[in-house]
Design brief:
By secondary structure, the protein is mainly beta. Helix content is 7%, strand content 43%. The longest helix is centred in the first third of the chain and has 13 residues. 35% of the residues are buried.
Length: 337
């Protein structure tokens, strides 16, 4: 809890790209696909997926199969939901699987209706986690929001809200939650917008909107930014290229475009996402070779990796889970489990 120690600790690790543990997780069953751990910051002896799995086992024991990690947060928190997600009055938890902290979210009358978890957003200041907000959809596509600051649920509507559910696990980043709709739009809601009485919503078209990309649309993150990649025909040449974009102030900026070797030999790869610390490194899974492939999106060089932890089922979405530089304590506004 010492600000001096926290600042000193973070300054010692801020310049190392290998100082934080991270994992690529399957969006369907929560299985860990790729992991980097035992890094300089914390020296963890297990991967993040292992900590999450062991935490669920310890927390719920024989009832582990009744609960699922529904959302991951950019400050290391996870949102746990009781299964099935449409059960009325189900249990919800916010936890830090590394520090083993866990908070049970209080029930509310609205939770007795059909509702679906969306994600968890957070607000931090000077290394302190001030507040988290758990967000759910109800059956009328309104937002149910729980605030740890007030300990209360609220029912919210947002301006310009699209009448379409998400197609991949939403991503929480810098107090906002991002997801992709079934109409192939990017949607962001800012849970901590100032100067307004309602939650701010932004709908953004993808940079390849109107084209016919070869990959399913999905997000990943890199160094605090939302990333998107796909294979499209580039204007002027009509040549297939793998393009990578970064979302910056509501606009998609092209990071790189290359012609990877597998485009000409037939597409037998599943995209996994971007390296969370290196925007030029993207990951694919070779269905033919059952091997992880990393590609340098600047020069086209590729490497068959050996970090694979489990097999991959085609058609799933994947997202990165990154341990932050500081293990934030969950605000002690409710009873700890």
């Amino acid at each position: 809890d010492s600000p001096y120690f926290r600042d000193l600790f973070q300054s010692m690790h801020q310049n190392s790209h290998t100082s934080s543990s991270w994992s690529l997780m399957s969006g369907k069953d929560g299985e860990e696909v790729v992991a980097q751990y035992g890094c300089n910051t914390w020296g963890l002896e297990q991967s993040l997926g292992s900590y999450i799995s062991s935490f669920l086992t310890k927390m719920f024991e024989t009832e582990k199969n009744k609960y699922i990690v529904w959302a991951y947060n950019d400050v290391g928190l996870i949102l746990i939901s009781e299964l099935p997600i449409w059960v009325t009055n189900r249990s919800l938890y916010v936890a830090n699987p590394v520090s083993q902290e866990c908070v049970e979210i209080p029930s509310h009358a609205h939770l007795k209706e059909v509702s679906c978890p969306l994600g968890i957003a957070t607000r931090t200041e000077n290394g302190i986690l001030l507040d988290y907000r758990v967000v759910l959809f109800d059956e009328d596509l309104r937002l149910l929001i729980y605030s740890s600051h007030t300990g209360l649920w609220s029912l919210n509507t947002v301006d310009s809200y699209p009448s379409a559910l998400y197609t991949q696990s939403p991503i929480s980043l810098h107090g906002s939650i991002h997801w992709i709709t079934s109409t192939s739009h990017s949607v962001s809601i800012d849970l901590y917008a100032t100067g307004t009485s309602s939650v701010q919503c932004r709908v953004t078209s993808f940079p390849d909107f109107g084209q016919h990309p070869k990959l399913n649309r999905s997000f990943s993150t890199c160094q605090g930014s939302l990333m998107y990649m796909n294979i499209i025909k580039v204007d002027g040449t009509l040549e297939d290229k793998l393009c990578v974009w970064r979302l910056n102030s509501g606009e998609w900026q092209l990071v790189s475009e290359i012609t990877p070797p597998f485009i000409d030999t037939g597409f037998e790869y599943i995209q996994l996402g971007t390296n969370p610390f290196d925007a030029k490194t993207v990951y694919f899974w070779s269905m033919k070779n059952q091997t992880l492939l990393s590609i340098n999106s600047h020069n086209g060089k590729f490497v068959f990796e050996t970090k694979l932890l489990s097999s991959i089922n085609p058609g799933l979405f994947f997202h990165s889970v990154v341990l932050p530089q500081w293990l934030y304590r969950i605000p002690n506004t409710m009873r700890m489990v």
